[in-house]
Design goal:
Two copies of one chain form a homodimer.
Chain A: H1 2-5, H2 14-34, H3 41-48, H4 52-58, H5 62-91, H6 103-110, H7 116-131, H8 133-161, E1 164-165, H9 169-189, H10 194-212, E2 213-214
Antiparallel strand pairs in A: 1-2
Helix pairs in contact in A: 2-3, 2-7, 5-8, 7-8, 7-9, 8-9, 9-10
Chain A binds a DNA duplex (30 and 30 nucleotides) through residues 11, 13, 15-16, 19, 40-42, 50-58, 61-62.
Chain lengths: 219, 219
DNA sequence: TGTATCCGATACATAGTTGTATCGTAAAAC
DNA sequence: GTTTTACGATACAACTATGTATCGGATACA
């Protein structure tokens, strides 16, 4: 009976799921640290506290695991942005100052690149996408989704604050995402700690946000 | 006597230099295509039309070659920007329309990411820099140099055209570089051809350039 | 023409990685 | 409590890449 309740594989034990998750987590770390190609299956297993037997019992190959991991990361990012957008829309009020109204967007984007490991992992996924059409399509689609979310926030802020923009919300969102990512990569490259990394990307984003705003009083 | 003229190694034959260059060129291609780790020394040699004997006769290891290659690429980029800046400054006149005054900057930046292979190679260098402090320092320094060049152009254009900017030329240059690179990566990911890639990045850059300009008449 | 030198090719020893096949054990089913 | 099943560990075979040591030939030079 329980088998009918579960959607996919009824036989998979709960402990097996834990093993999969541990392997995925370990893989995320190792892939970020040394890159997919330099990461041996054994290194991933060592990190997870298993041997390769566990690995091949759970995954076809390293590539298959990477594909699944990419999907998970992408979903998490999109979902995090979406939920933030949902929160903000339901609350309706933006009680931040006009000057740093875009702090909300920082919060939204924080979900994507908040620490060095995330930056590295996303960079790894991105460079694989550059070389693999399938991954590229998935990557671009996920990014478009995030862009929609950010554009929505931009629109909402504009409406709530009576802000006029010099470009469309889509364009603003796209530029913000690009700058955000670039700044995060540079910060990570400088070897700064997580909070400093966050501070730098925020500063850069604030600058861009300011640029997109059309302020008739003080241009 | 000729030995005294040459700077470094007097004994290196001209043909040896050609071999080195061929290996470096081949390596650039292969590294871009599959990444440094996945690129075997033999694959590089095959592409160059040599065997590994030639490789190890000319380079310590794959890493050493990559380091040298990175240096060359970085120098070329910086030098290209610098020479463009030099040209523009010496000429003095900017006969482009105010609307697309920043087409000049596109020209300047074109040297850095004009085709898919360059985008891939720079992405590879960037992700290595993310994982290696020495490379990171070199990368950031090279980028700072480019930023200075672009900022100089921005300043010159502003002066020549009587344009006011909403941010400092340095900030404008930094954002432009970030957006330029991000756009180039996305375009390359879409699998578009070289000229379409160029068109997309130009469009994105024009948008940012427009944002940085403060036009009192039509804000 | 003979000789020396240089440079790239070839051969080989070694290490590391992958995937599979088998085994042992712990938990589930009866 | 016994049997069965599932899951991860272990052992193994094949492959690939690396780096070194040696070889052969072309080129420069006398």
């Amino acid at each position: 009976m329980r088998a009918m309740v579960d959607s996919e594989a009824p036989s998979t034990t709960r402990s097996r799921e834990r093993t999969r998750r541990k392997l995925l987590d370990a893989a995320a770390q190792v892939f970020a640290e040394v890159g997919l190609d330099a990461a041996s299956v054994e290194a991933v297993c060592d990190r997870a506290g298993f041997t390769r037997g566990a690995f091949y019992s759970n995954f076809e190959s390293k590539d298959e695991l990477f594909l699944e991991l990419s999907g998970i990361v992408a979903n998490e990012r999109v979902e995090a942005v979406r939920s933030r957008v949902g929160e903000l829309e339901s609350v309706g009020g933006f009680d931040t100052q006009p000057a740093n109204a875009f702090a909300i967007i920082e919060q939204v984007l924080d979900v994507s690149a908040d620490d060095r490991l995330s930056v590295l992992l996303m960079s790894e996924i991105r460079i694989r996408a550059l070389r693999n059409p399938d991954l590229a399509a998935a990557y671009l689609q996920q990014e478009a989704e995030m862009q929609r979310g950010v554009a929505q926030i931009v629109t909402d802020i504009g409406r709530a604050k009576g802000i006029e923009f010099r470009v469309s919300s889509d364009e603003a969102a796209r530029i913000m995402l690009l700058v955000w990512e670039g700044a995060a990569v540079r910060a990570a490259m400088s070897g700064v700690e997580a909070d400093e990394l966050r501070r730098r990307t925020s500063t850069e984003l604030a600058l861009v946000a300011q640029l997109t705003i059309h302020d008739p009083q003080r241009p």
